[in-house]
TrEMBL record:
Name of the protein in its database record: Conjugal transfer protein TraN
Residue ranges, compositional bias (Polar residues): 94-115
Residue span of region Disordered: 50-142
Signal peptide: 1-27
Alphabetized UniProt keyword annotations: Signal
Recorded superkingdom: Bacteria
Organism per entry: Klebsiella pneumoniae
């Protein structure tokens, strides 16, 4: 019986110490909650108001309600590509970007492949032992 009482007494002291050490954290939780609640009340609805009062002209550089590219869109039931292909081909052939791309392909030096490259050596090794790979599995060629 003495061991039960001593175990219960030990549990009581451990629990009391835990409550005593945790009480300062609990005391601040009420004020922290109030501060968070007050902040939430201050900003409540700001996100929705930002969306309602959004102006593309004020927030996005170069924004217009009717950009030049709308001429390419004919609606969801439209067929064909309107003039998108011809305009893009014209811009590629006459614009600075298209000219730069074309020049980079035509003036680029060819890639030099070394005969000592590992993939070349592996291909030559495979070629040299092709008969052992295939063996006598196929029809004879004459």
């Amino acid at each position: 019986m003495k061991t039960v009482i001593s175990v219960l007494t030990a549990h009581f002291f451990v629990l009391s110490a835990f409550i005593w050490l945790a009480s300062p954290a609990c005391a601040d939780s009420g004020s922290d909650y109030k501060a968070g609640s007050d902040f939430a009340k201050q900003v409540q609805g700001n996100g929705l108001n930002s969306l309602k009062n959004f102006s593309g002209e004020q927030n996005l550089p170069g924004y217009t309600d009717n950009p030049d590219q709308t001429k390419y869109y004919g609606g969801v039931t439209a067929s064909g590509d309107s003039s998108l292909k011809s305009d893009s081909a014209l811009e590629f052939s006459q614009g600075d970007t298209g000219k730069t791309i074309t020049e980079s392909f035509t003036n680029r030096p060819p890639d030099q492949i070394s005969q000592d490259a590992p993939f070349i050596q592996a291909a030559k090794d495979t070629e040299s032992r092709a008969d052992s790979i295939v063996g006598d599995t196929g029809q004879s060629c004459t």
